Amino acid sequence: AQKITQTQPGMFVQEKEAVTLDCTYDTSDPSYGLFWYKQPSSGEMIFLIYQGSYDQQNATEGRYSLNFQKARKSANLVISASQLGDSAMYFCAMRGGNEKLTFGTGTRLTIIP
Amino acid sequence: DTGVSQNPRHKITKRGQNVTFRCDPISEHNRLYWYRQTLGQGPEFLTYFQNEAQLEKSRLLSDRFSAERPKGSFSTLEIQRTEQGDSAMYLCASSLVPGFYGYTFGSGTRLTVV
Predict the structure, then answer these.
(1) What is the mean pLDDT of chain A?
(2) Could you read off the pLDDT of A9-26 as tens digits, one per residue?
(3) Do A42 and B107 touch (CB under 8 A)?
(4) Other beta carbons within 10 Å of A20
């Protein structure tokens, strides 16, 4: 069985500061993928970044980077230079040997001007 | 192509009524997924299709739920005899190949059962 744990229900961050959202995972699959999605109040899940279990380097996409520590089974999302538009729910998710994504419970990020 | 489209965006129904939701995936995507998201939780997998074939169903998908993708394009999710516990956001996603960058989600249908 796959499990995603996000231990931060909510976070408040000053605008322009960097923020780290925590994610730990558990799986018995040797090959898996880790995703981060942003969900604004409109409801749509917006893909941010992907990390494959065999990728040697941490993934980066613009202001987003994924701090992948395989031995610790963690996949934290780092947002640099936060903006007001970053305020939203953030979900960590994993795809194992099957097709479905397993999501965590999410972190509500609020950026303070 | 403007992405994954879901209709309606909101649905309020009385307990015991049947409801049907529609999802139009990105046209070249052959895989289509349904997820359910209750308040304060992450989305949970319900079912997925490759073209018109339904390949996997979650145990969350009780016999009151049925999903179809008749021509391998759009999909419908029907809930019969709705219960208050069915109130949730129903999200659809599509992808071209398994996994990786390909999961594109729609904006969801929010169902409220009164």
Answers:
(1) 94
(2) 999 999 999 999 999 999
(3) yes
(4) 14
Task: Name the minimum distance, in Å, from the CA of A2 to any CA of chain B.
Answer: 12
- Answer for the pair A108, A9: CB distance below 8 angstroms, yes or no: yes
DSSP β-bridge partners for residue A100: none
Q: Which of A32, A36, A45 to mutate to test the interface with B (most CBs of B within 10 A)?
A: A45
Distance CA A98, CA A100 (A): 6
Distance CA B38, CA B49 (A): 22
What single-letter DSSP state applies at residue B85? Answer: G
The Cβ of residue A26 has, within 10 Å, a number of other Cβ atoms equal to 12
Enumerate the residues of chain A whose CB falls inside 8 A of the CB of residue B104.
Answer: 47
Instruction: Give A96→chain B minimum CA distance, Å.
Output: 9
pLDDT in tens, B12-31: 999 999 999 999 999 888 89
Instruction: Supply φ then ψ for residue A86, to 5 degrees.
Output: -80, -10
